[in-house]
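Moderator note: this is an archived Q&A kept for reference. The question asked for a predicted structure of one protein chain; the sequence and the answer are reproduced below.
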Amino acid sequence: MDAVTIWNQTLKLLKDEVSDIKFKTFISPISPAFANDDLIILTVPDQFSQEQVMPMIPLIKNCISASIGRELDVKIELPDSAFALNMIHQHTSEAPVISSDSSVSQINPSYTFDSFIVGAGNRFAHAACVSVAEGGKQYNPIFLYGGSGLGKTHLMHAVGNYVTSKMPSKKVVYVNCERFINDFIASIRNDNYSEFRENYRNADFLLIDDIQFLERKEQTQVEFFHTFNELYESGKMILMTCDKPPQSLSSLEERLRSRFSSGLIVDIQPADYETRVAILNLRMQDEKITLPDSVIDYIASNFASNIRELDGAFKTVVAYCFLANSFTLDDAKVALKDMIAPKQAKQVTPEIIVEVVARAFNITVSDIMSNKRSKDILVPRQICMYLCRSELNMTYPKIGEFFGGKDHTTILHACNKIEISLKETNTEICDHIDSIKKRLFN
C-alpha cells in the first residue's frame, strides 16, 4: 500500500486514541510522504509540531500495525527534511517521481481557498489564484513573491485542491523547486530523462514553489527554460512562488527572468493586525476551542512577521493552556516567553505605531493613512506622527514621507498640537498616549 492509503487507515484508529484537541492540532496536519515495506515517513508543518508528535510515535506504530496487519518504522520529519527527500529519490527508479496520482498526493488537502484568510496584504494574490483555478487564462505565468510564511504555498495548494476537485481530468503537478532539481539530477543518473520530461511537460497546471533555488543551477535552468516554454506555448498554467521579485534573481539567466516577468507578478505583504486576528479566530473555530480576547490580542500583537510563526504561537498557547487547564493571558505569556525575545518585544516601527493607534481608537490603518480630516481620524493620525517623532526620533521629512508625502510643516503642526495637549494635561489625549505607549513598549 502507498503512504496515503496507510495513513488514511491509521487516522481512523488514532481518532479514537487521542483527545479531539490533540487530534485536530497535531495529528490532522500530518502528511504522508513516503512508505515502503519497512518504513513510513510522515511530515509535520513545523518544528513545534514535530516536538509534540515525536512522543506519539509508539501509539502511531501500534495503530499502523492494527490497520495494515504489519509493523512499520515511523519517522516524523519536516517537509524539506534531507532524510525524507533522499529516501524518496532513492526510490525514483521504482516509482515515477511525478505522475498524476503522486502529484495530487503532495497537495495538502487542508490548504484550500476556504481556509485562506484574505487581508489587505494578500487580496490581489488570492483573487488572481482563484481566477486561475476557475479556468482563467489571462494571467500566465503567475509569480507570487514575499517573505517566508505569508501564504504563498497555501495559495499554491489551494489552486491544486480546487482544480483536482472541479476538473479531475486535469493533471496538476505541485513540486518544490529543490525537488525539481533533484528529479532532474536523478533522471540523468538513472538514464530516464524522457520519463522526467513527460512527467513535467504533460502537466496542465505546474505549481512550483521556491523558484529561487534555481539560482546557480545552470544545467537545471536550461531544463526549466524548455519546460516553461513548452507548457506556456501549449496554453498550460504555470504558477511560481519566490522570496523576491524576478529581477532580483541576479544569478538566474536573463531569458528566464524575462519569462517570469511576462505574466502577473504579485507581492504578498505581511498580514495586518485585523487579518492576524481573523486567522486566529479561524484556528479556534477549527479546533473548537475559545481563547479570551486578551490572549488573541497578545498573540496577534507579538507575531506579526509571518503566518507560520503565528500558527506556531497559537499551537504553543493551546497546548500549554490545555495541559495547565487554564486559559488566561498570564498563561499565554508563560507559554510564549521563549518565543518572544526581549529585543523583539522592544522593536517598534512606524507601521506598528499606526496599527496600535488604530486599534486604540477603533479605526482602521487605512483611515489613518488616508487624507480624511474628520476629528475622529485627524487626532489619531496626529498622535501617530507625534509618537514617530518622540519615540523613534524620526525627522519631520521622514515622517511626512511615511504618511504619503505630507509636507514637513504638516508634521510639525501635528506634533506641536499633541505636545500642547499633553502640557495642558488634556486627560483624554494623555490617557490615550499612556495606553498606547504601554502597548508599544511593555
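Archived answer notes: The radius of gyration is 25 Å.
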